[in-house]
Protein: tRNA (cytosine(34)-C(5))-methyltransferase
Organism: Upupa epops
Amino acid sequence: GWSGGYPEIVKENALFEHDYRELGIVPAGEWDAFMAALREPLPATLRITGYRSHAKEILHCLKDKYFRELQDLEVDGQKVEMPQPLSWYPDELAWHTNLSRKILRKSPQLEMFHQFLVSETECGNISRQEAVSMIPPLLLNVNPDHKILDMCAAPGSKTAQLIEMLHADMNVPFPKGFVIANDVDNKRCYLLVHQAKRLNSPCIMVVNHDASSIPNLQIEVDGRKEILFYDRILCDVPCSGDGTMRKNIDVWKKWTTQNSLQLHGLQLRIATRGVEQLAEGGRMVYSTCSLNPIENEAVIASLLEKSQGALELADVSSELPGLKRMPGMTKWKVMLKDGQWFEDWKDVPSNRQTQIRPTMFPIKDEEALKAMHLERCLRILPHHQNTGGFFVAVLIKRSPMPWNKRQPRVHQKLPQRTGDAEVTAANSDNGSECTPEEPTLPENEESKKMQLQNSDTEQIKKGGVCGPPPSKKMKMFGFKEDPFVFLPEDDPLFVPIQNFYALDSSFPKMNLLTRTQEGKKRQLYMVSKEIRNVLLNNSEKMKVINTGIKVWSRNSDGEQFGCAFRLAQEGIYTLYPFINARIINVCIEDVKILLTQENPFLSKFSSETQKKVKDMAMGSIVLKYDPDPRKPDDLQCPIVLCGWQGKTSLRAFVPKNERLHYLRMMGVEVFKARRKEEESESKTKEDAQPGCAQTEEGMDVEDKEKDLVIKMESEISEASSRSPVESTAMEGENKVEDLDQSSKDTNGHVSQESNDTDTSNVKD
């Protein structure tokens, strides 16, 4: 009844059982175990961010402190199982436990562990991600120089994995590869931004397009414009989501065969568009959180058939040892919601042919079917390793698609640049452009509309300004983004920055950008050279939501200290290799003081640190900790912090969760101190020196943005509420200048309705 709140959802669906029993999805004798697993809650899984230098320290902290405290612990009479590493995930960087969110939140014994998970997740050091969702990025085999497209990226957990793989070598601040993360839903794009922002990468761009008609992009190669082909594509399409029944229990009552029939066409169009943009020799992973062959093998078989040998399924049986998997199916039937079965397209009555399409059936040619090797697909069943259900297929492109035999290339020489920030689109009056041949298959009709347009529709881009595409060319939804403006080579703004921080001559200043064309530039952002190339050559055809990381913020009184811009913590690991001045090496005791006290006097620091800052001018500084291998009990990973040197004090500008992270890694108990810190925060600011008050004005942008996040969260729709939402890393300058106006703008930013997606489709 309703007396106790919402009625409990009954985990039964006769049509689901009838369909999958008949299709033979589950091996003989395992059906009861399969259904029992679906009715059990999904174990909580977490992944330690792999590319960070702190990954080993976090793993050590988890195993030696938090996991050890869970031994022999009981909550509500239920014994808490010790978290276990996922056997197939490399380097023990992924773990699962039977602890549900409900138990974590309500148990006092687990409050410290829960707070650790929340804080480290916000820092980007841990991701709460379903186990099977981690598989597709691993099977992409990403290298740091790969150009990657994530076609249906939100909410972004897989995108985060891809970014980590690009930054496998932490000593390379700008990998040659990049990730373009796309989603059709404007609101969910900001969830994507939140995930990407935590990783602080200059190599990620978030765009907002329909994946089935995502436009061809151009890049400049040796003075020529060429079509951008991707080395790796992740095609994690919208699906019916019956593999997620363990966490999305409403699927039990909503499941019907109609869901798969309605989504099949969209899935095939998205996959087709993906392989069109894949480079020869490139790899595309197609995945769904559905078990239905109509959404899985039928899409792959149709794609392979019309590729005429251009695509092949990769054999990944030797990859991810330890992962239990079922081979792909070669025979299946189609069922309507009334229980009627069809084994062949010719048996479908005319009045049903709008619901059921020929591509939903397996091909009849036995030889051709055998050559497809559909058994190379992977189906993950929930009862095999206590996971959700999932399907993965890995495709390799051997040659151009048959409708696109001529690889699209724009044969046009670019004029000489007058400066790094100026790019002029070539004129196509000479007719030298060669556009790609358009596909003739009906599944790809939507893709035709977004093929490369004649270059006479391009407009001249001056001053490195990359604005959103004109509304006449593309139907736009959601908030209108501010333009991306690259700093001109001779911009006087950069000279004092370069001198103040003694930037290395190799510093790529042409990759600096702002989000305003007029007025004071309040934030400076950094992108990689490759992302800059994409931005400058595609501003008319691409709606960019976000890109780059913040590296400098304007300080209201900064000019009197020699530089108007202070360093931003989120970009410090990218900037640090290029900075040759204003670096102070500190010991671990100094780091603890910096992270536990708001504005400590210089006298509290070690004598070595006091000597180093004695002759240094006031202003923004870099605080660097290098581990001492002779002291194995101390923190054994380097730390780089942004700070500020005052007349008599030294402070760190680090977001609160990041402070807590570093303190945990150093063995400092922060759980009890957190509330005390919050209570004393205002008192500490009042006790700070009057001379430092003006210095601090305009420096706490991170904290102000955090306040905006709280206001934004109340506006986010239920469909987008699976993970916390932060304000974008690339907010317009006018939003930081006036905080009251900023909160209004940000609320308006996220409250715009996006009409171009059906959020009822489950997307893991």
The radius of gyration is 27 Å. The first strand starts at residue 44 and ends at 48. Residues 257-276 form the longest helix (20 residues). Confidence is low (pLDDT under 50) at residues 408-462, 469-476, 684-760.
